[in-house]
Amino acid sequence: MAGIIVVFDFDKTIIDVDSDNWVVDSLGFTEEFERLLPTMPWNDLMDAMMGKIHAAGRTLDDVAAALRAVPIDPRVPAAIRAACALGCDLRVLSDANAFFIDTVLDHHGLRGCFTEVNTNPSRVDADGRLRIGPYHAAPHGCGVGTCPPNMCKGQVLDRILREAAAGGGRKRVIYLGDGRGDYCPSLRLAREDFVMPRRGFPVWDLICEDPAR
């Protein structure tokens, strides 16, 4: 199993919901989020929403409390721990953000199972407000057409595979995801790899539309 890299999406894969929507809804900012949604890219919108949440007097602890209440199927942590115990190299590749993911993984005692978390960076500024940035600071130039402007998961997976090969040969990949952004990395997999799309979700539909690609 040491020759296997398991790559997990986060939203609607490790957890049962979209963490961005969950936090916004839990803290009572759904109406403001929906008003701004047509006006800016999602990643920029979430940074703006963290500013509005902070300005309304909600703290980082409030955000973390909402994240600790995120629904997760108990079989998922069990499967992650089992794969880790078998020696698989586990990675997260997600268009969420570092604070959200780390908070949830730490709450469930899973952070140590993962070699790395690849996601949009986040930081807490001097005022205690959470800032969320893009993974790719410049346009990433992916031509697949399903990646958001702030992150091409295919390019991130390419980097993971290059580093793994440099460390002793190509590893077999198992990729788990659900969204449109997970389609691009699924196209980077070799014949010996596996993609496990969540049935009925966007990446499942995209793969079914062109299974020979």
Automatic annotation (TrEMBL):
<dbReference type="InterPro" id="IPR023214">
    <property type="entry name" value="HAD_sf"/>
</dbReference>
<feature type="active site" description="Nucleophile">
    <location>
        <position position="9"/>
    </location>
</feature>
<dbReference type="InterPro" id="IPR036412">
    <property type="entry name" value="HAD-like_sf"/>
</dbReference>
<protein>
    <submittedName>
        <fullName>Uncharacterized protein</fullName>
    </submittedName>
</protein>
<dbReference type="InterPro" id="IPR006384">
    <property type="entry name" value="HAD_hydro_PyrdxlP_Pase-like"/>
</dbReference>
<feature type="binding site">
    <location>
        <position position="95"/>
    </location>
    <ligand>
        <name>substrate</name>
    </ligand>
</feature>
<feature type="active site" description="Proton donor">
    <location>
        <position position="11"/>
    </location>
</feature>
<keyword id="KW-0378">Hydrolase</keyword>
<dbReference type="GO" id="GO:0046872">
    <property type="term" value="F:metal ion binding"/>
</dbReference>
<keyword id="KW-0479">Metal-binding</keyword>
<feature type="binding site">
    <location>
        <position position="9"/>
    </location>
    <ligand>
        <name>Mg(2+)</name>
    </ligand>
</feature>
<feature type="binding site">
    <location>
        <position position="20"/>
    </location>
    <ligand>
        <name>substrate</name>
    </ligand>
</feature>
<dbReference type="GO" id="GO:0016791">
    <property type="term" value="F:phosphatase activity"/>
</dbReference>
<feature type="binding site">
    <location>
        <position position="11"/>
    </location>
    <ligand>
        <name>Mg(2+)</name>
    </ligand>
</feature>
<keyword id="KW-0460">Magnesium</keyword>
<feature type="binding site">
    <location>
        <position position="178"/>
    </location>
    <ligand>
        <name>Mg(2+)</name>
    </ligand>
</feature>
<dbReference type="InterPro" id="IPR016965">
    <property type="entry name" value="Pase_PHOSPHO-typ"/>
</dbReference>
<dbReference type="Pfam" id="PF06888">
    <property type="entry name" value="Put_Phosphatase"/>
</dbReference>
